[in-house]
Structure formats: structure tokens, C-alpha cells
Recover the amino acids of this structure.
């Protein structure tokens, strides 16, 4: 017996890329995303290029060096948990979209993929306030090794004696 189910989804898709907090067109325009099981068109989606990826990386680095990087781990964890909440809230829609996009039965994304996506965000949200990185300038040292030490030891000590010198 062959069974089929209508997993169609009536929703609007963005045809632009979200980079640096704003929607913008892809450098290459759009492409048609096909359902691999039926080869029917699903949607026109942004056709990202290497230049678009470079722009996204620059924007992400700017946030890491700027506002996002200045937030506490607690605040970052709240954002990641909010994303997980939204994934769970819209899980049925996301599962149907995933099934259509990948061409697999809707049960798999419903049971595995979508809950795992939410759990991944929750996992990293849980770590956000546990790992703290602080950067300190290298200490200023005064190295006066005994005169009978090997010259390699003396040069290693004196090479680190000024601030900003890599160790």
C-alpha cells in the first residue's frame, strides 16, 4: 500500500539574506528551491555567494568585537534560550518545512531534528554564563638569571620582559 500525505505549507519566505541585522539582496539574486522527493518548486530563496558569506563573517566579527561581545554570559544565554523557545513554539511548521526541503517524512524532523535544534541552543545557553574569558596584558618581568645558565634560558627570559611581547 502506498500512502501519501499533504505536507504543503502556506507561508511567506524571505528572498533576501539577513546580514548585520538587516535584510538585503544576495549578490547573485535568487534560486528555486526544489522538493527533492517530487522535484516541485518550493520557493525562491536567496542564492548566497562567497562575497555574501564574507559580509556575514565581517558583520558577526563586528558584533563579537562590539555589542554582543560586551554582554554578560547571562544575557547571551537569555538570547539563546529565547531562540530555543521560538523553535519549540513553531516546531510543527519548521518540521513540515524541513520535511519538504529535505524530502523526508515529516515524522523525523518532528521527533528528532527540530527538538535537537532547540536543545542545541539550550545547551550553549547553559554554558554561556559558565565560561568567562578575560584578556590581561602580559606582565612586566625583570629577568636576571644566574650567569651560569645556558644562553638559551637567558634569552628566553629577557625576550618576555616587555609588555606586549608574545610569550
Amino acid at each position: 500500500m502506498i500512502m501519501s500525505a499533504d505536507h504543503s505549507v502556506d507561508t511567506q519566505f524571505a528572498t533576501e539574506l539577513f546580514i548585520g541585522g538587516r535584510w538585503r539582496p544576495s549578490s547573485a539574486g535568487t534560486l528555486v528551491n526544489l522538493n527533492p522527493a517530487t522535484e516541485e518548486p518550493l520557493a525562491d530563496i536567496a542564492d548566497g555567494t562567497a562575497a555574501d558569506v564574507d559580509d556575514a563573517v565581517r558583520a558577526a566579527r563586528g558584533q563579537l568585537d562590539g555589542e554582543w561581545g560586551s554582554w554578560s554570559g547571562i544575557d547571551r544565554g537569555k538570547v539563546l534560550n529565547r531562540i530555543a523557545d521560538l523553535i519549540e513554539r513553531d516546531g510543527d511548521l519548521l518540521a513540515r518545512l524541513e520535511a519538504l526541503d529535505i524530502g523526508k517524512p515529516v515524522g523525523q524532523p518532528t521527533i528528532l531534528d527540530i527538538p535537537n535544534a532547540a536543545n542545541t541552543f539550550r545547551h550553549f545557553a547553559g554554558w554561556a554564563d559558565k565560561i568567562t574569558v578575560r584578556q590581561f596584558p602580559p606582565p612586566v618581568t625583570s629577568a636576571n638569571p644566574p650567569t651560569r645558565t645556558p644562553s638559551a634560558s637567558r634569552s628566553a627570559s629577557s625576550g618576555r620582559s616587555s609588555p606586549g611581547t608574545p610569550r
